[in-house]
Amino acid sequence: MPHASATQTSQRVYRCTFCAKAQTEVKTLVAGPGVFICDECVQLCRHVVEKKRKPTTRELPSLLPDNAPTETLLKTLAGYDGVFERVDAAMQDVVDILRERDVSWAAIGEALAVSRQAAWKRFGSPS
């Protein structure tokens, strides 16, 4: 298979793994191993890291799901909605790129710890 053209590559839309904003909605999207983070989420994380203080014993239990308020759990659940679909779409993009580079189904299956047939069934057959 030939290498991906600029047209094929530009059609892929990558999203921040944390907030799910598309690359077109943010200033910068940084790629990591299987994840992306946008400049807005980096900024939020910087504020958390810059605090550099240990949580008090009163603050720590609220971070655990068993002790979180119901409203917090509902917001967390809403944030999870669609995560699997976004991860699956990101995996499909990676597999498409690998196939464009003539990477075999056997190699893709090995990377996913499944047979080549299972990899093809999940990512190669038309949806």
Describe the structure.
The chain has 127 residues and is mainly alpha-helical. The chain folds into two domains: 10-53, no CATH class; 69-127, no CATH class. The chain is 50% helix and 5% strand. It contains six helices and two strands, in the order αββααααα. The chain has helices spanning 6-11, 39-51, 70-80, 83-100, 105-112, 116-123; strands spanning 29-31, 36-38. It has a two-stranded antiparallel sheet with strand order 1-2. A hairpin with a 4-residue loop joins strand 1 (29-31) and strand 2. Helix 5 (105-112) packs across helix 6. The radius of gyration is 19 Å and the shape is extended. The two termini are 21 Å apart. The model is unreliable at 1-7 (pLDDT under 50).
The sequence of SSEs as H and E is: HEEHHHHH
Rounded to the nearest angstrom, the radius of gyration is 19 Å
Shape: extended
Instruction: State the share of residues found in helices, binned by percent.
Output: 40-55%
Largest sheet: 2 strands, antiparallel
Helix tally? 6
Short key terms for the protein model shown above:
127 residues, two-stranded antiparallel ribbon, disordered N terminus
Summarize the structure.
This protein is mainly alpha-helical and 127 residues long. The chain contains six helices and two strands; from the N terminus they run H-E-E-H-H-H-H-H. Helix 5 packs across helix 6.
How are the secondary structure elements laid out?
Blueprint: H1 6-11, E1 29-31, E2 36-38, H2 39-51, H3 70-80, H4 83-100, H5 105-112, H6 116-123
Antiparallel strand pairs: 1-2
Helix pairs in contact: 5-6
